[in-house]
Specification:
Chain B: This is Electron transport complex protein RnfD. The structure holds two protein chains of two kinds. Helix content of chain A is 26%, strand content 21%. Chain A has helices at 99-108, 119-123, 150-168, 182-188, 209-216, 234-242, 262-274, 303-309, 366-370, 377-385, 389-394, 405-409, 416-430, and strands at residues 4-6, 14-17, 27-28, 35-36, 41-44, 53-54, 59-68, 74-82, 132-136, 172-178, 192-193, 196-197, 200-202, 220-225, 257-261, 280-287, 293-298, 317-322, 329-330, 344-349. Chain A has a six-stranded mixed beta sheet with strand order 1-17-16-20-18-19, covered by helices on one side. A five-stranded parallel beta sheet of chain A has the order 13-14-10-9-15, with helices on both faces. In chain A, helix 3 packs across helix 4 (182-188), helix 3 (150-168) packs across helix 7 (262-274) and helix 10 (377-385) crosses helix 13. Chain B has helices at residues 17-39, 41-64, 75-85, 94-110, 121-132, 134-137, 149-152, 170-176, 183-199, 203-206, 209-218, 229-249, 252-265, 267-273, 284-295, 298-301. Classes of the chains: A alpha/beta, B mainly alpha. At the A-B interface, helix 5, strand 18, strand 19, helix 9 and helix 12 of A face helix 1 of B.
Chain lengths: 451, 307
């Protein structure tokens, strides 16, 4: 089990962006000169598609201004100068156990999945019923810090799963681990929970979670599968785990599945037991730093302070990446804050920076061999390059999970993933102003529970 | 402090087209050395003439059409070397020169350069040479493989490539290191051996230097072979079938070259007809299987299934 260290030093400046999720920007509740406490709400949701923002430190608001954001944009942020003493809001453990209260508490606590969707929307999507809750632990981002033993971690995750199921009103839940993550599998295997022994069930071929729910005669199981990573893995993940196909332009919610991350599950557990909103997260710092580690930091800490807490750069840094080397975003500067969506910070040295020039495709089929969803990336890239988006649709471009493996193995160094993303974007925009009533034959949108 | 900005992915494999090509050339060096030992310095002259003319042609064409000079990626060298190795040892010195010019100028550049040509340039040039100058292209002897020693050193070889099938072992290294992929060679060899056994040809006649060379270096040439997973299997089987058909009625050495050339013709067709479906879609067989399984009352038989 990877050890989690806690960042003790108090930085000079905290930047808390008012948008740490996909959706609308929050409205600031504080203004310059005000003093805020730990856990105080500083961003109010203007709409449903939003999650509240809380202050993670105690201090004085220096300004509310546009500041850099790890996504590469500039977003309205609250800049706070922390002070030494910590004064907290009164956190009260969550008492009432109703579904509606739990959902509104999750929304108030600003819990967000690491892929950006606010958790209350994942668990309680408009016009859809969720019957299965999955905790995706395959990406293996680490969770919390105060576990005595792996067993404690395992039972806490199962408690979190129960809470998630209650919040979603789902009858079944599963934790999906990675095949090669031996620590976690050992932690769960043989654990006694609610009078039953948990067995880690491998997902193989046609044996998906449905089989194990029947086989083990339970409503909670722990399963394991191969590692999947990528930006849009949810449709593929849903299919892999439950066998349900998510229709084009729909979300897993339309198939009755809610997918949560490990971090948000832990945050909900904390919320119910201590009342603490989502104000701290674990980031994995690696690459050209002196002391790479998993670090528990407060949201809003700048990358510079995080790297200093890890012993500073070793050698001259050339590239700063948030969220992984395959799908992450390269940063312009160090003055970007850790947000709820940040899972890792990677520093690359000068010799690691790629300077390749694209050549012609030689049809070596390496991209075809590595593609986890059976696409022909080289052909889709060529069609995207020529703007033939209709043909891209026929090649099932919407299945692409944007894992970046095709770009990574290409010997001609073609930017396959960018070309596919470009084409997907163009396809999505083409239908934006498409009138629904134009023809009775065409039906846009998704219907819930269709299998 | 300034940081580099670039789109993801931020790490890539260090395999480049240049590296793949030069390693293929390295894998062909042992057989070149054995053929020079066998046929004397004249074989070296043939190889050098082939490589030299290929480089000169590439340079002239790229200069003339204002393209980037791509000599250093090694493809011209590879084409020249492969063509020279496919010639008989007593061919006149102008044969590789004409052949290399034809391979690079017509086979490669007239079709649009790397990645665009539909026929393997080496085979294009070989077919041209054997049609135009057939009297110079027929070797004085065809190998009569019999014993184990002929696998290592073939005394009756007429072509440079025929001298030693074992010296082409570099092809296996290429597969292990994934510089060429395994499906085409595996299905090619399997089909050929099984079919040759069925029609009653001696395996010793089939496994020649030309066959091993064709399996590892000609059939796996990436622009002229399919990209889809099933397509590569079909292509390998097709090459094998054509090789046995030609080989059974003529000789297996020319059959290898002709069959790969003909299989190149249908590469695009194989590709477009084997495009994979969406990941959650059922294939034809799966659909039939499900239809049958739906009619069996599994629940009543007391067997638990997936929902």
């Amino acid at each position: 089990m990877a050890e989690i260290n806690v960042m003790e030093t108090i930085p000079e400046k905290m930047i808390i962006p008012l948008k740490q999720h996909n959706g609308d920007i929050c409205e600031p509740l504080v203004s310059k000169g005000e003093v805020v406490k730990v856990g105080q709400k500083i961003g109010e949701c203007p709409s449903e598609k939003c999650a509240a923002i809380h202050s993670s430190v105690c201090g004085e608001v220096v300004s509310v201004e546009e500041s850099s954001h790890p996504s590469g944009n500039r977003i309205n942020s609250v800049v706070i100068q922390p002070i030494e003493e910590t004064e907290c809001e009164d956190f009260t453990p969550f008492k009432d156990s109703g579904k509606e209260q739990l959902i509104s508490a999750i929304k108030e606590a600003g819990i967000v999945e690491n892929y950006g969707t606010p958790t209350h929307l994942v668990l309680n999507p408009p016009d859809c019923d969720i019957d299965t809750v999955l905790i995706n632990a395959t990406a293996s981002e680490w969770v919390g810090h105060n576990y005595e033993t792996p067993l404690e971690y395992a039972s806490q995750m199962l408690d979190s799963l129960r809470l998630l199921m209650k919040a979603a009103g789902a009858s079944r839940g599963a934790i999906v681990l990675r095949n090669d993550d031996k620590d976690s599998i050992d932690a769960f295997d043989g654990l006694d929970y609610e009078g039953k022994t948990i067995m880690v069930a491998p997902l193989l071929g046609k044996r998906r979670v449905g089989y194990y729910f029947n086989d083990q005669n339970t409503d909670i199981i722990v399963a394991s599968q191969d590692k999947i990573y990528g930006k849009n893995i949810f449709e593929y993940f849903t299919y892999n785990v439950t066998g349900r196909k998510v229709p084009f332009r729909c979300t897993p919610a339309n198939a009755g599945v809610a997918i949560c991350g490990v971090k948000s599950a832990k945050a909900i557990h904390d919320l119910v037991n201590t009342g603490m909103p989502y104000i701290e997260t674990v980031v994995n710092v690696s690459g050209q730093v002196n002391n790479p580690q998993h670090l528990l930091v407060k949201i809003g800490t700048t990358f510079r302070d995080v790297i200093e807490a890890c012993g500073g750069y070793s050698g001259e840094p050339a590239k700063l990446i948030s969220n992984g080397v395959i799908t992450g975003v390269a940063q312009y500067e160090e003055e970007v804050p850790v947000t709820k969506m940040t899972t890792s910070i990677i520093v690359q040295g000068k010799d690691e920076v790629l300077k390749d020039i694209s050549k012609d495709c030689i049809h070596c089929a390496r991209c075809v061999d590595v593609c986890p969803v059976d696409l022909i990336p080289n052909r889709i890239a060529a069609l995207s390059n020529q703007g033939r988006f209709d043909e891209c649709r026929q090649m099932h471009i919407e299945n692409c999970i944007e894992c970046g493996r095709c770009s990574s193995v290409c010997p001609s160094k073609i930017h396959v993933m960018q070309l596919i993303q470009y084409s997907k974007e163009a396809i999505a925009r083409a239908d934006e102003d498409f009138s629904e009533k134009e023809s009775s034959n065409i039906k846009l949108g998704c219907s819930c529970g269709s299998e | 402090m300034t940081f580099t900005i670039s789109p993801p992915p931020h790490i890539k494999q260090d395999t480049t087209f240049k590296k793949i090509t030069w390693i293929k050339i390295l894998a062909l060096l042992p057989v070149s050395v054995v053929s020079i030992y066998f046929f004397g310095l004249y074989a070296l002259a043939l190889i050098l003439a082939g490589i030299g003319m290929a480089i000169v042609t590439e340079l002239v064409i790229e200069k003339a059409f204002n393209k980037d000079i791509t000599i250093m990626d090694g493809q011209a060298v590879l084409i020249g070397l492969m063509l020279a190795l496919m010639l008989p040892a007593e061919a006149p010195i102008w044969i590789p020169i004409v052949g290399s010019f034809f391979a690079v100028a017509i086979g490669k550049h007239a079709f649009g350069g790397i990645g665009s040509y539909i026929f393997n340039p080496v085979l294009v040039a070989w077919v041209f040479l054997i049609l135009a100058y057939s009297s110079y292209m027929y070797p004085v002897s065809f190998p009569e493989l019999g014993g184990i020693s002929d696998i290592f050193l073939e005394n009756g070889a007429g072509l440079l490539i025929g001298v030693s099938p074992v010296a082409l072992i570099g092809g296996l290294y290429l597969i292990l290191k994934r510089y060429i992929e395994w499906k085409i060679p595996a299905f090619y060899v399997l089909t050929t051996l099984v079919l040759a056994f069925l029609v009653g040809d001696e395996i010793g006649h089939v496994v020649t230097g030309a066959f091993v060379f064709g399996v590892f270096f000609l059939a796996t040439d990436s622009p002229s072979s399919p990209v889809t997973k099933n397509g590569r299997i079909i292509y390998g089987i097709l090459c094998g079938v054509l090789t046995v058909i030609y080989g059974h009625f003529a000789n297996y050495i020319f059959a290898v070259f002709y069959s790969i050339f003909l299989a190149n013709c249908v590469t695009a067709f194989i590709d477009t007809s084997t495009l994979p479906g969406s990941f959650a879609e059922e294939s034809f067989l799966q659909r039939k299987y499900r239809k049958i399984m739906e009619k069996i009352p599994i629940e009543r038989l007391g067997v638990k299934t997936d929902d």
